[in-house]
Amino acid sequence: MWKEIVAFAGAGAALYAAQQSELINEKAAKILAGIGGTTFVFYLANRLYFSGGKCYETERLDGKYVIITGANTGIGKETAAELARRGATVIMACRNTEKAEAAKAEIIADYGIGRPTAFTKNILNSKIKKIITPVKSQQLIIEKLDLSSFKSIREFVQRVRDRGQKIDILINNAGVMFCPYMQTADGFEMQVGTNHLGHFLLTELLLPEMNRSSKRTRVIILSSEAHLQTK
Q1: Predicted pLDDT at 15
Q2: Is the Cβ–Cβ distance between 130 and 181 less than 8 Å?
Q3: Based on the domain organization, do 8 and 116 belong to the same domain?
Q4: With contact defined as beta carbons under 8 Å apart, do 159 and 175 qualify?
Q5: Which residues of the chain have pLDDT under 50?
Q6: CA distances for 16 relative to 23, 27, 87, 116, angstroms
Q7: Which residue segment(s) compose the domain that 88 sits in?
């Protein structure tokens, strides 16, 4: 009798364990499916949005002169490299010329003549691969420009004029953010003075030179959605 009871209890325990195992496996499968789905969504978001915009244009910029403010890091540096690969001469207008020199060296190391990555790094498709060329050192010109100082801006523009430098494209890229309260050399709050007033003066002073250079000049201004968070 006891053997039958023990056997029955054992069978019941086994059945219960099997049912629980199925429930656990089902829950685990749902969790794994959820993780997989979430991972896939983040992958797509990274590819389509967070990785930034992509340029599929195949136009060359040979003979074009481009000024990029803040070209020593981030978007400015990558823009300088990409435009130089398409044949443009880029004036890297930076506050810190030592960092600009380091950025120039990195661009040459990645995309210079004889570099193994010159035709492989950051290539979106075969059409773009056909139109890019290695970057030459003389294509990257470093100039001192402190956008928080009207004096520095005027001196920069004067050097451009003195060289008789034509300007086809101006890219206002530099900017500061999250800095403690401080003032520019001219008494303006640092972010407003650098990001807005500095670029406004620079553009205003360069427009006559740009209009004399070409009928197809461009002024490109980078901005951020961070202003939507202000109160």
Answers
A1: 47
A2: no
A3: no
A4: no
A5: 2-3, 5-11, 13-16
A6: 10, 16, 73, 63
A7: 65-223
pLDDT tens digits for 155-202? 999 999 998 888 999 999 999 888 889 999 999 999 899 999 999 999
* Statement to judge: residues 187 and 76 lie in one domain: yes
Structure tokens at 95: 């506050």
Please indicate, yes or no, whether residues 73 and 41 belong to a single structural domain of this protein.
no
How would you list the strands of the sheet with 140-144, edge to edge? 140-144, 89-94, 65-69, 169-172, 218-221
Q: Parallel, antiparallel, or unpaired: how do β-strands 89-94 and 140-144 relate?
A: parallel
81 plus 14 within the same structural domain: no
Quote the CA–CA distance of 199 and 202 in Å, as a whole number.
5
Tokens of 148: 């928080």
* Within a domain: 149: yes
Is the pTM higher than 0.70? The answer reads yes
80 with 186, same domain: the answer is yes
